[in-house]
Write a structure and sequence with these properties.
Number of domains: 1
Structural class: mainly beta
CATH superfamily: Jelly Rolls
Helix content: under 10%
CATH class: Mainly Beta
CATH topology: Jelly Rolls
Bound molecules: thymidine-5'-diphosphate
Number of strands: 10
Length: 130
Amino acid sequence: MKKVKFQQHGDLRGQLVAIEEEIDIPFKVKRVYFMYDTVSGVRRGYHAHKNLKQILFCVHGSCKVLLDDGLIKETVLLDKPYEGLYIENDIWREMFDFSEDAVLMVLASEHYNELDYIRDYDEFLKYKGL
Ligand code: TYD
């Protein structure tokens, strides 16, 4: 898990950020999804993935992401459209403190597959051998 700052191509007209698969991010993008109109106070996620690389961008507004590898918990604030949070396999995540205007966009390395999810925290710890 790491926060990555992408290049901003700014000029007098404004900003532009470009992300190229296998160049700026270390995987091919098979899926893009985004969350918006998140209801105030909602916390979502509550899962880990067995085989999925993702990068999260809060392209508008802000939110926080709790990352947990079973041993260490870390909370990351996403509040800049040019910052991405890279998350690999086997990391429990929860997203919360969404601002009213937050748009959380995710680029993912695989198609949606419910079988890839671990949605139970105890099962997650067992899966990690903890
Ligand atoms: P959900 O897994 O509950 O979101 P989160 O864990 O981030 O809080 O997903 C909400 C719904 O959207 C659920 O019915 C599954 C569906 N969904 C897709 O169809 N494709 C996707 O790529 C994702 C992430 C979710």
